[in-house]
Amino acid sequence: MAKAQFHKNQRVYVKPVGTWALVEKVVPHWTKGLDEPLRIVYDCGLGRDFQAEELQAEEPLSESKTPAGVENWRVVRARNKWQPAEDCARHPVPGTYPVVITGEAEWGGWRVPGAEYDLDPAKIERQARQIALSPRLTAFAKALVDYARKSGEDIPASLTDMAHEAQDILTAIERTP
What we know:
Elements: E1 11-14, E2 19-22, E3 25-29, E4 39-43, E5 49-50, E6 55-57, E7 74-79, E8 96-101, E9 109-110, H1 114-119, H2 121-151, H3 157-174
Antiparallel strand pairs: 1-2, 1-6, 3-4, 4-5, 7-8, 8-9
């Protein structure tokens, strides 16, 4: 019995071809009398179907680098419904746009309007990465402020200035509008 290892519109590296592609279709091969498919292949739009072992998923940011207690926001790709992939070949990943997931469920978070993404895709991609990494940056700023407080007079003036700036940023983040 087989379980799907990749999903539709997931960006994968196709090892035999040596390129990145999107999974266009998940194709299960069924056998009469079985509740699950016998095997699953993936159509990536490259002329033939590929087995799971021929594909490699994108590596997400290592969770081991995420400090304990910090939210795990992440960037996923959503299918571009307002434009066919042929019309947006200049986009970083044609046919998709970034979505920042800010919760445990795969549906909550930050999205950008299609027209805005089309104006400057590189800018929106950078913003998505910035938003997804902001919990780690906040944790880093807190650690810097804590270090500066514990060190007292033993740290250089430039590091003290950075700690003051970090404290100002943290205050702005926590301030209720």
